[in-house]
Amino acid sequence: MLTIFANCVALAVYTPYPNSDSNDTNAQLEQIEIIFMVIFTLECFMKIIAYGLVSGVLDFVMQGNGAESGFDVKALRAFRVLRPLRLVSGVPSLQVVLNSIVKAMVPLLNIALLVVFVIIIYAIIGLELFSGELHFTCYNNETGSRMERPHPCDNGTAGFNCSQLNSEGKFFVCRDGWEGPNYGITNFDNFGLAMLTVFQCITMEGWTDMMYYIADAMGNSWQWIFFVSMIILGAFFVMNLILGVLSGEFSKEREKAQARGDFMKLRKKQQIEEDLRGYLEWITAAEDIEMEGDEKKESDVLECVCGFARVAILVRASNPSSVCLFALAREFSKEREKAKARGDFRKLREKQQIEEDLRGYLEWITHAEDLDLEEKDDKKESEAKPVEVDNDKGDDNDEAQQPSWWQKKKKGFDRINRRARRACRKAVKSQAFYWLIIVLVFLNTAVLASEHYHQPDWLSQFQDYTNLFFVVLFTCEMLLKMYSLGFQGYFVSLFNRFDCFVVISSITEVVLTSTEIMPPLGVSVLRCVRLLRVFKVTKYWRSLSNLVASLLNSIQSIASLLLLLFLFIIIFALLGMQVFGGRFNFNPTEDKPRHNFDNFVQAMLTVFQILTGEDWNVVMYDGIRAYGGVATPGIIACVYFIILFICGNYILLNVFLAIAVDNLADADALGDAEEEEGKEGEEGGEGERIEDGKMGVEGEEGIEEEEKTALNHIALRDGDTGSHTKVHLEEEREDGEKYGDYEGDEMGEEEEEDGDGEDRPQGMRPRRTSQLSTANKTKPLPPYSSFFIFSHTNRFRVFCHWICNHSLFSNVILVCILISSGMLAAEDPLRSDSQRNFILNNFDIFFTSVFTVEIFLKVVAYGFILHKGAFLRSAFNGLDLLVVAVSLISFSFKDGAISVVKILRVLRVLRPLRAINRAKGLKCVIVAIKTIGNIMLVTCLLEFMFAVIGVQLFKGKFFRCNDRSKALESECRGQYIMYHDGDITKPMVEKRVWEKNAFHFDNVAKAMLTLFTVSTFEGWPGLLYVSIDSNTEDIGPVHNYRPMVAVYYIIYIIIIAFFMVNIFVGFVIVTFQNEGEQEYKNCCLDKNQRNCIEFALKAKPVRRYIPKNRFQYKIWWFVTSQPFEYAIFVLIMLNTVSLAMKFRGEPEAYTHALDILNLIFTAVFALEFVLKIMAFRFKFYFLDPWNIFDFSVVLGSILDIAYSRLEYYFGDAWNVFDFIIVLGSFIDIVYSEVNYQGMSPMNKILHEVEVGTYLTTQNNRNLEVKREKTNSSSMTK
Asked: Could you tell me which residue ranges the Ion transport domain spans (predicted)?
């Protein structure tokens, strides 16, 4: 392991240079590499000899590649960076995370095939529709030079027109010859580049630029549908399937690991009990061989047995002693075996020695019990004293000694000390002390948050004195708790350990500040550690405490994942140094890109940037350019970035969300269990329960609640420690859950379920799930008067209630909401008095009238607000009333109050939200969003903490002069000369400006806004490098002045963006799942049983048509045979390959050959259609949606061939028709998904690939004609 670590250090120290240059350090490292290679080779051969060749394949491959490095084979030398992977085998904590990822590889392979299928489909469509369109740009008609910032253009009027650039005698024309956007890498000129472009768009980086490029080249008529559908299907749907797979596999592996740990604990417990039982038998046998009349020894044996029984009882109540007892019992077992082989005298001696050992152990247990008894009341202490007396009586008949003067004084001091500690313990556990500490914490936080840029001197002095004052107060609090609880009792609590760490950090910060030993950066970080005290408020807030507990329980998994992520970053950083080091120097007149691989630290930052997904495509462009660009084999360099992005962003980072979902489910279950226990206690009259927000500290004289909670958390990490306590608590929790299933389930019902809340008799038949799902549809009429006019039995009110609950009424209102929402989008915002707006305004009046009638009927039926079940008692009804009231008020204003009307009409955008109250799924989402308050609070606290740290680090340091030669504001005056694009022939005079970065850390509010943008990953690399270059206050930046501040951003992104933001998503997922289960909570069937019943109810018999006609039967047998399916499958694959073979600038003969292949494939598929029609007849053929899809595509292909030689003006309309076929085909795929699940594997593959083939057959010739005419028209101009 040390050798692997040393080899990683050697690889990191290596500095790559351009053009394969080197220095003395690199030469020495090459010599050291030989030593590493020899060591690893010897290890490899030893493992092969010991375990065989198969087990040492990885080591053998790496050593073989390492040996090849002597031949300067660059690609093979890069394999040396895989050596850090061997560190994984030495870290057992990575087992759960690694196993979950490895086990997910098989389902991930299926998802990968689906992703590749989607990419192929869109790549072929893009190849047919957009090939060669991105190479037209504007050229100066006189000089032939391109526009300054080239982008695609169009010779027609649909896209960007170059005439917009004409000025001062300069005339621009649109013509071919440009390499294309992004150095010609992102285009649809051939199948490979089209797949790369589609993959980049699916990652949601740069897809909007591509859409606008296409709009500039072809117009903005229908092209946006291609990109929007690709994002929805590829990015939103397919890529998120990876999360589902990883979440399921991680949950399974964690359950396996937990079950394995429980099994090992049970085994160890059984082994301890077996050894104890054997020793008791040995003690009993030793009694039989004792000499008669020896009263003393007999009494010793009896005392030993009684003491040993007491030890066994104490062991069951005290976990820390179980490990010691296990070792002791193992020694007893050994001694028993020795005693059997020796004589009786030797047995007796061994027995006496063991008795003495047992007595000493019992005294140790008694001493530990005394420490615990110090936290009990006086009654328990008095019960413990006889135990000590009994133990002292058996010590070899020692003479009783009178206590000395010193012992008396010590005993009196101990008594006074015990009373003082009890008084201190009562004080520190009091409610007043708790609130005092909380107030001090918030005051300390406010003082730290008050620091800002250009603050007055008096405020700085005040902050220094108050910080010192708070350090003294919190140190006194820590010492007081240590004295009252004892060191062991104090450090048992996780919160107390946390407090101790913060206090020690604060004292260290004060010492370092006064002595000026540490630089200000480290002092600022230590000072801000005190902000962590804010989390003490979560201790007695139950729901928030459960959330924090779930986060703490996931620390081990998170730490393992971070270790794996760190190894992953190291490997790809070292690989990037080997492949791209020193190659990002493209233009001597420009600065080198900040994302590069020229040293280890910069390579790690670049890899981490790619992991976050921000501008990863820009780094890929530079990587391809480093090896010659897109026209050379350097395009292969994209493989490095694609693998890095997929493995890092889509797999490793999704494990964060998998861990979050898994642990949040546990926290939710813990909260439900505690809720049911609370209900059980209230119903049984057992004590008082602590509710949310109450302190519940009175009467607590034992170990405080936080220590119990901490012990439970420690039990999850420390093996056997706390296992008995944990099992006991879990058993009580399970009892509470069982009790709550029958007694407390109806307590949380909504009001509309009040009529169904009565308990069901034992003999009543359980309700079906369908009855359960429909039981809550009709809201009963409240038994109160409405507006003090309409009674409960009033006919008009009953009639209004009947209308409101009629399904037709709800459907009509929903349709009106959707139509009115669509009309809001159709308004013309530029011309308010247009004819279209006049018509839409009349419709708005009509829909507002309909909604007003709806509100009137509901208010009459349910009442307004005063009684239970009234209209405004529901938040969704309040939203409906607000939207309708705003619409009515806006109609009452005249043109004179146009500003008021605009403000009120803006609120009409809330109208689509009214559909939430009528859609069950949307309602569940809203409920899930309402429950994220705790996570929002924790995230805001962390955000606030990082913002204060950011103010400490970067306040006043984000200023710069646009003239880089000036570092001070006083120097940044006047004007300076700059050269455009580094060309000395193009000088420009600019005015010097001292400017502040748009995002900065001058105060806490601005810092929180800046960090929020970082958490979204948008533009964070630019802010990172601004921070790295920051110097001191009011001084301009210096290149790479403080590279260590990158740690601040990395930690923030890992905690907030990687984990806490995923907690939001995970909490919504868990809450949405729980809300979906609410309608079944009174059902006696579990989820699996309900799924089985629903599957049985939805199952339909498979119909198979077999013709009776002999000739028709032979055709049917042929088209349904397996050889026919394989033949069609091969033809589809060949047709797909032929479609992918198209490229820009292909020869005419090549195009003609592809057209002939298109005719052949179309004829074959048309023949397939005819044979299936003859076999199934029209009636049964069109019953299968896939056959309808095949028919539509074959028909489109035939029409495409028929129209391919018509006039040019048919081309554009036909391309639109082709795209309609494509869109309809995808809708057909979604519609036929139910039938797809029951198809054979061959049919699945057949139809999946057939989609990719048929969707683009129609466009082979149309775009060629269009392109030829476009080129000819541009040449004419």
From this structure: 1-257, 431-667, 806-1079, 1122-1202
